[in-house]
Write a structure and sequence with these properties.
Layout (H helix, E strand, L loop, with lengths): L7 H14 L28 H12 L8 E3 H22 L5 H14 L1 H7 L2 H11 L4 H14 L5 E8 L2 E11 L8 H4 L4 H20 L5 H18 L3 H4 L2 H4 L2 E3 L3 H4 L5 H7 L7 E4 L2 H13 L2 H16 L5 H15 L7 H25 L2 H24 L5 H12 L2 E5 L17 H18 L20 E3 L4 E5 L14 H18 L20 H19 L2 E3 L2 E2 L6 H21 L13 H11 L3 E3 L1 H10 L16 H7 L19
Parallel strand pairs: 3-5, 6-8
Antiparallel strand pairs: 1-11, 2-3, 4-5, 7-8, 9-10
């Protein structure tokens, strides 16, 4: 697309120059300009395998650590974040003047690390939970147990939670959804042709039996067969992940008074009362046909089978805070699904435990130590720059009607970026944490999180709330609030280094920022308007033209193999693939604008264009085990990391930068290069 920068972009370019000027004289953490050129494999033609060209050397000499199912840039940063989080937790534990919330984080960690105490208590903490299940006799008892799963964090076939109302983003509403499968996806139950799925089913049945045996539940083997058969029936009626992606299909408001008639078989009055939702006027049902069929199963399946099913899922959810025999058996099954040879060190799992229980409490400590204000300011500026570039794209997109284009620009103007950490931290004052009670801590922190959400009902939406902690290496787009959110932990090399060459930063974190911004205009994000409401604001012709483009994305990615014979699901991964394409495109625009009309210098023998694309591909260096890749293809809306650099084949600039030509494996004729935004 030809590209004209309006006058207001000039200020944007100057802001970018200032952004990177502060790094003058500092040394990048990777290489001489921000790229690990030693990790390249220059024997590979970039036009044949761009990921191999950029990351092949690294891949050849880097084994996947034994405690990981995959390993790459994200995992390296996650390891760093875990080390830092451990440091601040242990510092809080040693500080007699620690704040009450910091003390809770420390005590939570201490309770998890108390292996001797956990072994000494044995299965005693489980007994009360299993006794309640043993006492189940009536439909009301079953409904109570189903609802308790949502509050206390164990799998049940029908889950409930509190979410933002997609038709009213300033309000909260209870949402009911399918769930309760112990295997990663319904395909693991229903696909009888895949040998990996068959292996997983057999291992899962053995695992259920072993966990029940360890918990002292009689007849574990027979009950395991019944549980697997029941979960197979659940899988048969559940929606696919592709169907569940469709935002408008998930939005089905139902008056609470009509639940019993629409979805008979479950005691809905008891279900809602158990989790303090009985007084709500309505709920959103995410998958109506699945909920109807599952409610019917609740009334048809013998209560004894449900007891076995729920007993297993309670034990499974608590395995990490039970004696070593449970931990080892739980990991043995996970090894089948992921191929990961060794369990993570206990301290790493302890960090996960704290993050899940009082994540903001430790996040506040993390930010104070590792995320200075100037880092936040630099990231703020980058987001502003990417939004300016996206605005230009939206103003000029040729397939969109002028009136829709104007609404798209207005939607972008409504965005609220969140950078680094929240302005308001979660309050854990009501949570009881004991340094000698890991099992109880897990129950109490999980219930407290659910109860906090229930307490939001009837109040205005708390738009200060984050869905990730600052120490999380990730980012997200939240369509109902028109947000893009970038936690502190991802704003590190190789994603962002103020001392690196700007072209590298734009290719790396710039593409991530552009990715999240563009999610609000992908095949699902586009369904939310400038206020965040789920609404039709595109013309039918816009939708048709957009679908013609996204069908090409589905086809392109659906041809990629994650493993021999295992192709990417182009429909499931569509949103993420659109975002990769748009994010990289917009980041490239932003980088060009940042040059302010001046040519980029050659650094280390690489042109600016080359450094931009090297920076992008470097963040996707990743190796993964076969079992993990099979699981990812079945259940994850993201394409495997090693395939994501292939998006470059759709950008004309990449061809010029690396000389890709007809006959190269990644070559696409200009007419076949997909340009959505």
């Amino acid at each position: 697309m030809s590209f004209r920068a309006p006058a207001r972009i000039a200020a944007f370019a100057l802001a970018t120059t200032a952004l990177f000027a502060v790094a003058a004289g500092a040394a990048p953490q990777l290489g001489t300009f921000g790229v690990d050129v030693g990790g390249m494999d220059r024997t590979i033609r970039p036009g044949d395998d761009f990921n191999g060209f950029v990351n092949g050397g690294w891949a050849a000499r880097t084994p996947i650590p034994a405690d990981k199912a995959r390993y790459g840039a994200f995992n390296m940063l996650a390891d760093q974040s875990d080390e830092r989080t451990r440091t601040v937790i242990e510092a809080a534990a040693a500080d007699p003047a620690a704040t009450p919330e910091a003390r809770k984080a420390a005590d939570l960690y201490t309770s998890f690390m108390d292996e001797a105490g956990i072994e000494a208590r044995g299965t005693a903490p489980l007994k009360a939970d299993l006794a309640r299940l043993d006492a189940m006799k009536t439909p009301a008892d079953l409904a109570e147990a189903f609802a308790a799963g949502s509050r206390y964090g164990f799998d049940t076939p029908i889950g409930v939670g509190v979410q933002i109302d997609a038709r009213d983003p300033d309000a909260y509403v209870p949402t009911i959804a399918q769930g309760g499968l112990g295997l990663p996806d319904r395909d693991y139950y229903l696909d009888k042709t895949n040998p990996r799925f068959a292996e997983a089913r057999a291992a899962y049945q053995r695992h259920i039996a072993k966990m029940l045996d360890l918990a002292g539940v009689a007849d574990g083997a027979a009950k395991a067969a019944a549980v697997l058969a029941l979960e197979t029936r659940l899988a048969e009626v559940q929606w696919s992940r592709v169907d569940t992606r469709q935002a408008e299909k998930r939005y089905n408001p139902v008056p609470v008074a009509e639940l019993a008639t629409r979805y008979p078989g479950l005691d809905w009055a008891t279900y809602l009362k158990t989790v303090d939702l009985a007084g709500q006027p309505r709920v959103i049902v995410a998958q109506p046909s699945a909920i109807a069929a599952t409610a019917k199963l609740a009334g048809e399946v013998p209560i004894a089978t449900w007891r076995a099913y729920l007993a297993f899922h309670v034990v499974s959810a608590r395995a990490d805070v039970l004696p070593k025999a449970f931990v080892d058996e739980d990991f043995a099954f996970q090894r089948v699904l992921t191929g990961q040879p060794e369990l993570k060190a206990r301290w790493k799992r302890g960090v996960d435990f704290v993050n899940g229980g009082v994540g903001d409490a430790v996040g506040k400590l993390y930010v104070a130590r590792y995320f200075p204000p100037d880092a936040k300011a630099k990231a703020d500026a980058l987001v502003t720059n990417l939004m300016a570039a996206m605005r230009v794209r939206l103003q000029q997109v040729p397939w969109m009607a002028p009136e829709t284009r104007a609404k798209a620009v207005a939607k972008l103007a409504s965005f609220r970026p969140k950078i680094g950490y929240p302005d308001v931290w979660e309050d854990y004052g009501a949570v009881t944490v004991r340094a000698d009670d890991a099992y109880g801590n897990l129950q109490r922190t999980t219930a407290a999180r659910f109860d906090r959400d229930v307490a939001r009902l009837g109040r205005p939406a708390d738009r200060a709330k984050w869905l990730m902690t600052p120490q999380t290496v990730n980012a997200y787009a939240y369509p109902v609030w028109n947000e893009v959110v970038f936690p502190a932990a991802i704003l590190q090399p190789p994603f962002f280094d103020p001392a690196a060459d700007p072209a590298v930063n734009y290719g790396a974190i710039g593409a991530v920022i552009g990715h999240e911004i563009s999610h609000h205009f992908d095949d699902q994000g586009r369904k939310y308007d400038a206020t965040g409401r789920l609404a039709d604001w595109w013309t039918p012709a816009d939708v048709a033209r957009f679908k013609a483009l996204t069908d090409k994305v589905v086809k392109q990615y659906g041809a990629y193999e994650a493993l021999p014979g295992v192709k990417v699901n182009g429909e499931l991964t569509l949103g993420e693939n659109i975002a990769d394409l748009a994010g990289l495109t917009v980041a490239h625009d932003a980088w060009l604008l940042s040059l302010n009309g001046k040519p980029a210098p050659v650094i280390g023998g690489f042109t600016g264009e080359q450094r931009f694309f090297l920076g992008f591909a470097q963040v996707w260096r990743e190796k993964a085990r076969d079992s993990f890749l099979q699981r990812q293809v079945a259940s994850d809306p993201h394409s495997p990391g090693a395939l994501r650099p292939r998006v470059v084949r759709n950008l004309d600039a990449w061809y010029g930068a690396f000389g890709a030509k007809p006959g190269d494996r990644l070559w696409l004729a200009p007419a076949d290069r997909i340009k959505v935004w």
